[in-house]
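CORE FACILITY INTAKE
Project code: CF-77B
Contact: R.S. (postdoc)
Sample description: multi-component assembly, two entities in total
Requested service: structural model of the whole complex
Turnaround: standard
Below are the sequence entries exactly as provided by the requester. Do not edit them.
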Amino acid sequence: AQKVTQAQTEISVVEKEDVTLDCVYETRDTTYYLFWYKQPPSGELVFLIRRNSFDEQNEISGRYSWNFQKSTSSFNFTITASQVVDSAVYFCALSEAGYGGATNKLIFGTGTLLAVQP
Amino acid sequence: DSGVTQTPKHLITATGQRVTLRCSPRSGDLSVYWYQQSLDQGLQFLIQYYNGEERAKGNILERFSAQQFPDLHSELNLSSLELGDSALYFCASSGQRPGSYEQYFGPGTRLTVT
C-alpha cells in the first residue's frame, strides 16, 4: 500500500533561518511520482514540484530545494532564508502513473505547519 | 490562479439535506479529481473521472456521487448530509499534455453542515 509520512507536525522558525521539511514514502510501484503542495492560510492548495521515480536529480528553485533519495524513500524540502510569507501547511504527496498522462489519486501526508516568525 | 474553478465557495446547510458542488477543470485537462479535507481525516481522495468516465474511487461514501459532463466540468453530489460531512472539498484537474502529471487544485468549497 502507498503511504506518505510527514513526521513533523509543526515547525516554528525565525525569519531568515533555513528549514527542512521531511517526507518519507512507501510504495511497491517502480514508477511513481512525488509532489509537494503548499496550503497558505487562505486555504488553496498550490502545486510546488513534481518528481519522477526514475529521476533522482535534486532540484533548486530560488529559495526552495528538494532532495529526493530512493535509497531512503525520502523526498525532503528545504526553504533557505525563510520569510513570513512561507508560513503555510506543506503537504508531500505520492501517486502512481495512470493512463494517457493522467495520474491516479494523490496520497497525501498529514502535512507540516510551518510558522515563520518575523 | 490554478485555472480550476469551484462553486460555491462556501455552503451552509442542515443535516439531511443534499448539495451539489461544481468544478470546471483547466482548459484542456481531461482528468478531474475530488478530495475532502477534514481535521480528523486529513486530505483524502474521493473519486477521479477521466474524459467523462469514472477512473478511480477512494473513500467516497455511498451518499456521495459524482459525474463528469461532456464539457468536462464535474459535479459532486452529497446527500443525507451529516455533521461529519463538514469539510473543505477540493477539485483538481490534470492531463493537459502528455507527461503533465501535476494535479492543479481549485480554491475549494467549504461545506458546513449544521
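Facility notes:
- Residues 18 and 79 of chain B are 4 Å apart (CA to CA).
- The mean pLDDT of chain B is 93.
Invoice: internal transfer
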